[in-house]
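Troubleshooting entry. The earlier prediction with magnesium ion gave an output that would not parse, so I re-checked the input for stray whitespace and re-submitted. Clean input:
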Amino acid sequence: MSKSRIINLLRNGQPDQQVTIQGWVRTKRESKKFAFMEVNDGSSLANLQVILEPTLDNYEDKLNKINTGASVEVTGTLAESPGKGQNIELQAQTVTIYGEADPETYPLQKKRHSFEFLRSIGHIRTRTNTLGAVMRVRNACATAVHQFFQQHGFLWVHTPIITTNDCEGAGELFNVTSFDLNNIPQENGEIDYSQDFFGRPAYLTVSGQLEAEAMALTFDRVYTFGPTFRAENSNTSRHLAEFWMIEPEMAFCDLKGDMDWAEAFLKHIFKTVLDQCPEDMEFFNKRIDDSVLATADNIINQDFERLSYTSAIALLEKADKKFEYPVEWGIDLQSEHERYLCEEYFQKPVILTDYPSDIKAFYMRLNDDEKTVGAMDVLAPKIGEIIGGSQREERLDVLEKRIKEAGMEPEQLWWYLDLRRYGTVPHSGFGLGFERLIQFMTGMQNIRDVIPFPRTPDNAEF
Ligand code: 4AD
Ligand code: MG
């Protein structure tokens, strides 16, 4: 059977065309002479209106079974729609009901549900307009990520999820444990949960960066795109315990080059998504945040602001605004500071560079002042940090010193140090939090609503 996707019919369908669609009923209405149902198949925000005439086989019986949520297949003829809003509708000839949905218990009613309620029905919430649009935009972003890097000769490398290193050195690791599910010790169990990757400690990765660096020193330009894990017990609207990260790594590239790549990359993604999902993006602008389209335009057409951490601190100290967290050189910027800079002061994305070495990871390249490192964070209006990156320390002796200062053991990172012994080059990279990007693009306020199944301290059920 060749079926049509609704998005294609709405864009290119012609009157009198014979088609078959499959999908889920969004609404059903009855008038005196016939009934309508709106069918959605996930391919677009808009539904296809289907007209059910009383001449249909078992008309009455069908009408009883077709309710919001039911799954159907409809074969019929397209016709010009007299109604407002869409050009085309489907005159049904045959309707098959695959699965009914009891209107007494089906959790989605024809009204606005809160995002909080929708999180409690994570297995069904993507059938709403907003969550459906989020998932389509997410898909378009993921495709644009690959397209950008592939066009520029980057190799996609798959870095491990189980690892023995703590790349960010922040101690926010989930431990990996193996045990026999049928024989879990109930009390005083003998499993040593800290040493159980076949007798040694191992963790879920917080970042694929260190392995990506190894790959960059073969392939010059590489990127990762995969899940990463952070055991931060923080219930905020921007943190997940499991999130997807994109980490490009470029050999023969300094901090300026790193910023240029990050900016070109974000511009490409916004442009592509506006092109591919215009209806979904308009929906976000209308229903979620009326600055979504203006922000996208701003990203695509304006240069990002670039300034050093030290200059940013000076700006914040001069700001005629009282911050909750006091500003002084050396602090880790809080989201209120980041938001002031990009929302109020510059009103566009800001790239901050050269942070104090004490608040950044061991692998960042020490600057000549020996106080700051070649770091760069991209800050976005309403979200704060969406990208963290740096030029990497490529000098063996300096790196060894920095690892020790960070309280880590150089022996554990012997292979990472080897990369500085054999054919070292200046190199740089960054990490983009994929869900923060989707938040930024759609205006969705809570990060739990831009990933199909969020993992947070309060949810791992579905
Ligand atoms: O700044 P981070 O910790 O940097 C790294 O992991 C580096 N290894 C990246 C690199 O240079 N290759 O994380 C990068 C980005 C952040 O800017 C943020 O967007 C996102 O990852 N992120 C999170 N997103 C959701 N939930 C969390 N708990 C996140 N923690 C970081
Ligand atoms: Mg960071």
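This one parsed fine. The longest strand covers residues 18-30.
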